[in-house]
């Protein structure tokens, strides 16, 4: 028995067999199949968190603009509709008005009224506006932001 073991160890053909390599590749493939979707979900979740934070920062600056005597009357309008408001917000947020990270083709939308002192900030995909701040309840089930929240 010992002689056979010594013979096997001293063979010149050292290395892995094809079966061993296939097993290792299968294990790696399973680990990748588990990890990649989780990483993608975390990336989307971080984009959603950044956009929610940006919406709150924009809303805070709009409220400050109204408190400083600025007059605002926007209903589901692009932030760029009111140039004075846009400049005020851009100057007070570090780095200017933040980009929408979840989908770069979308734009910030605002509903704000100086009289009622209400401010809503959301994103518009071209056909639909999803309000991010404050969270309006009940939220539309199709809102892509709540999928990752």
Topology:
Elements: H1 2-9, H2 18-67, E1 73-78, H3 83-92, E2 107-113, E3 118-124, E4 129-133, H4 144-148
Antiparallel strand pairs: 1-2, 2-3, 3-4
Helix pairs in contact: 2-3
Distance between the termini: 63 Å
Q: Which strand order does the major sheet show?
A: 1-2-3-4
Based on CA inertia axes, which overall geometry fits? rod-shaped
Tell me what portion of residues adopts beta-strand conformation: 15-25%
Mean pLDDT: 88
Q: What's the story with the biggest beta sheet?
A: 4 strands, antiparallel
How would you describe this protein?
49% of the residues lie in helices and 17% in strands. With 149 residues, the chain is of the alpha+beta class. The chain has a domain at 45-148. It has a 4-stranded antiparallel β-sheet, with helices on one face. α2 packs across α3 (83-92). The longest helix has 50 residues, at 18-67. The protein is rod-shaped, with a radius of gyration of 28 Å. The model has no long low-confidence stretch (mean pLDDT 88).
Short description:
By secondary structure, the protein is α+β, with helices and mostly antiparallel strands. The protein has helices spanning 2-9, 18-67, 83-92, 144-148; strands at residues 73-78, 107-113, 118-124, 129-133.
């Amino acid at each position: 028995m010992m002689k056979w073991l010594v013979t096997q160890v001293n063979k010149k053909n050292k290395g892995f067999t094809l079966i061993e390599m296939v097993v290792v590749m299968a294990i790696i493939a399973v680990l990748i199949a588990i990890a990649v979707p989780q990483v993608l979900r975390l990336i989307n979740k971080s984009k959603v968190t950044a956009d929610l934070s940006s919406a709150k920062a924009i809303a805070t600056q709009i409220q400050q603009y109204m408190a400083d005597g600025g007059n605002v009357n926007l209903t589901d309008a692009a932030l760029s509709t009111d140039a004075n408001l846009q400049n005020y917000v851009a100057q007070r947020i570090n780095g200017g008005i933040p980009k929408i990270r979840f989908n770069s083709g979308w734009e910030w939308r605002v509903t704000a009224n100086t009289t009622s002192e209400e401010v809503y900030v959301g994103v518009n995909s071209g056909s639909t506006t999803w309000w991010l701040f404050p969270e309006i309840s009940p939220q539309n089930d199709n809102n892509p932001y709540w999928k990752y929240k």
